[in-house]
Fold these 2 entries.
Entry 1:
Amino acid sequence: MGIEALTGLLLVFIFIFFALGAPVGLALGGIAMAIGYFTWGDAVFNVIPTTIESTYFSFILLAIPLYIYMGQFFTKSGIGDAMFDASQMVIGRIKGSLAISVILVCSMIGAMVGIIGAGIMTSGSIALRPMLDRGYNERLALGVIMAGGALGILIPPSIPMIMFAAATHNSIGKMFMGAMMPALLTVTLLISYVVISCRIDPKKAPITQSDSDNQKRPFMEKISVARDGFLAMLLIVAVLGSIITGVATPTESGAIGVVGAIILSIIFKRFKVQMFLNVGLQTAMLVSVAMWIIFGASVFSNFHLLMGVQSMVSEFALNLNLPPIMIIMMFQFIMLLLGFIIDEFIIVLMCAPLFTPIAVSLGYDPIWFGVLMILNILIAVQTPPYGFALFYLKGVAPPGVGMATIYKSVLPFITINLIVLITCMIFPQIVLWLPNKIMG
């Protein structure tokens, strides 16, 4: 059987098993091994130990449990609430101030959590109810939750970026640096949209008595709120700064973040033994699920690469006689379609080792392509009707909110993300300037 027929067979079985609700990691790994057995015989099972060695013994992937633990500690200990209060106090009594705070703080919390699903769920649990209680437009409130929580995979430290770096043997520090300017551009455009839309229609974000009370706090209380928010932000800066300056590896910076989060919870007088145990248990569960998904997807990806799919895709792309940028756009379209049915982990693990070498052979920088991939995934998993993240947003929405409302709420924010993706594609230096300037 040729590589084309085998690839088609793999994809058909994946869609069938996903439709039946099979566990993602088991489905991907099991399908690859089953088809490989009938194609190669017993030799295919050699893929399993080599995948275990390359996946679970990767120093870069050791950072994943630490970042997840740090994110869980941020949310469970109330440090995220401290950031939210400080941001709201600083922004002040302006139209849409609460929504702006949500974008700023929830994007940071999402970054600490590091994955889209957990970022949206965490952001929604902290910020959705306060916006609705203050009379915010339902679509605006839901949209900024999605926009802020999902940005966690674009704002370092991002777990999909770590996976991309591990899968393609690129610098995680450069990936983090490359994503900073697109992330800043995205946040700026999101905030601009909120400000402009609230000026056009003030009913979307009414100023309430709570906003006034926020500004009339006693001076010492304002100092306390500002201190807590500043310390929380300082920890995030320390985690990123230790990587950027080369003081620590991504794994070591994750450890810095965990220790810092525990110290902050003690300073804020929010540390409880039961909370500490619950955070550890929740982290263990999330890491276990993530590791099974990574293993299954890596088995699938390695088998697919051994079949020769990279040569097939490369030859197909070159035989199209398209300009290189059109091939990059074709890859973006494929990943966009994948985002309708699978989450960000799987897209990175399936597409990064397949598409990145081809992009490099066309003369493109792998860091630029990696950031484009993350931007694309950010759009794909939010795109109606089947975007994966839409169902996370449904999970935190009030009971009466239907999927049609959720679809409408995210469309303006998806459009902004698409503008950023196209801009970074046209102007690669938006991605490459900072890593080249700082890291050479």
Entry 2:
Amino acid sequence: MLPYWILYFIPLAGVLLGRRLAPSARTAIWWSVSLLLTFLIGFRQQVGGDWYAYLAYLERASLMTLLEVLVHSDPGYYLVNWMVAGLGGHIYSVNLICGALLMSGVAVFGRRQPSPWLAFLVAVPYLIIVVGMGYTRQAVALGFVLLGLAALSDSRMRRFVILVLIGAAFHKSAVLMLPVAALASSQKRLWNLFWVGVISLVGGYLFLFDSVDALWTNYVEANYESQGGLIRVLMNAVPALLFMILHRRLDLTEAARRLWWWMSMFALVCIPLVMLSSTATDRVALYLIPIQLFVFSRLHLVTQDTLLRAYIVTGIVAYYAAVQAVWLLFASHAHAWLPYQMYPFAS
């Protein structure tokens, strides 16, 4: 359990000491820490609830032709496995590539926030530890969504669409994020609604529509339950509600304000949806985790009072420490993450 707490205390040190460093040192340390976490994700040994399932992916990919890989479900992930298998690599190489893609999204998105280390700290307990080390395919898709959201905040809609489509090649559910681009646009809205709508339909056809019946049967009709799903949805809903109340005090551009208004709306809509299908909603809600990083890294900006700002930051640090502690101690699947083992040092 100690390695996970070390992961938490690294960005905490950045929160406490980051502003005392020269800008060049901050940048070097930021990317060094991102690289460290990439290695910890990539070289984990038997960590994560789907560890053996991902070994099976690598075995299947090693027996496929390139054409079979490209027409398979989630072709991006199969392509990575196919290339690694062809070069004689192991699951650690696959996980290292996927970890790098996730951490690229976290690092780029986090650096754009007013308190980057606070955004990093918020990402550690669930986004990095649970998703990054447990849901490999969706973690990569989320990494591309984070890169896309960073672009969309600057009104670079085409880049967002391209990045989300790449993410959907690793986990088809990412295609559900495409409509955000049109809804968040503040200029040429009808045109943007049209072309993003067309691309959403094409993306849905390529990645999702052929699986709708199976997804509905498996997640809704079968009434699968994701333990803790409501709690994780509420973790997105809290910053969403705070954003809706305080967004005018956060000094945002109109593009950013519109984008995160819709992200907040989707996060709140997940509350009643999780009652219908906790597993399906829980997995879709993973793509709304960025709202936690966005809101909590700038929540202290709502006041000019230095002492009150310190209290807000302290409260966020304590809250996410509690999130990590509760998950590690009480989550039903936490045993799959404990103890953390790293190749080649694992017994």
